[in-house]
Design goal:
The complex is a heterodimer of chains A (111) and B (122). Chain A is mainly β. Chain A contains no helices and nine strands. In chain B, 0% of the residues lie in helices and 49% in strands. Chains A and B meet through strand 3, strand 7 and strand 8 of A and strand 5 and strand 10 of B.
Amino acid sequence: QSALTQPASVSGSPGQSITISCTGSSSDVGYYNLVSWYQHQPGKAPQLMIYDDDKRPSGVSPRFSGSKSGNTASLTISGLQAEDEAGYYCCSYAGGSIHVLFGGGTRLTVL
Amino acid sequence: EVQLVESGGGLAQPGGSLRLSCAASGFTFNNYGMTWVRQPPGKGLEWVSTISGGGSSAYYAVSVRGRFTISRDNSKNTLNLQMDSLRAEDTAIYYCAKPLSTITILGALDSWGQGALVTVSS
């Protein structure tokens, strides 16, 4: 089973909104409500931004939101800020013998 | 405050072994499953292995199954990853991570260590 599919890169200007997609299958993203999103900046530990498809952990800015339709999950960042520039990874429980899948990651550039 | 500190990384030869450890503090360790995630240089995150809170259940990625063994010592709040038959493609930063939920141990990870670099090369 392959990794979840994400665009390699996205970009936006400060104040704009961007959306990162994460496409899986009916066996993982589309079956379980267990998609999570992580922000990863160079030299730092990854940070959980969204869990269970659309829930935001305490302390995470409300500018970050998650959604899902069928086999595709999405992370939307509104009001882009320079500090949002980072790698973003989706992750889903996949069951069976695969267990957990990450996406290939998306590099967000704030122009 | 949750703290996770990895140790034991370094250089190993192909076919060799290495043991990583993760010292945990700031939460009730034996209530939580624990996970290892790795990131090869220039590549994305890859789930490696998860162990249940009591240590009775373990789960592995296909790429490491049969070569890596996850374990834990709840008396010392320590998570381990024994890596045998190492390959060049195992070169990565290895992170230990704690799940958000005590129940969904293969779910979202809300605390991560800073990582330990493992290099497999002759």
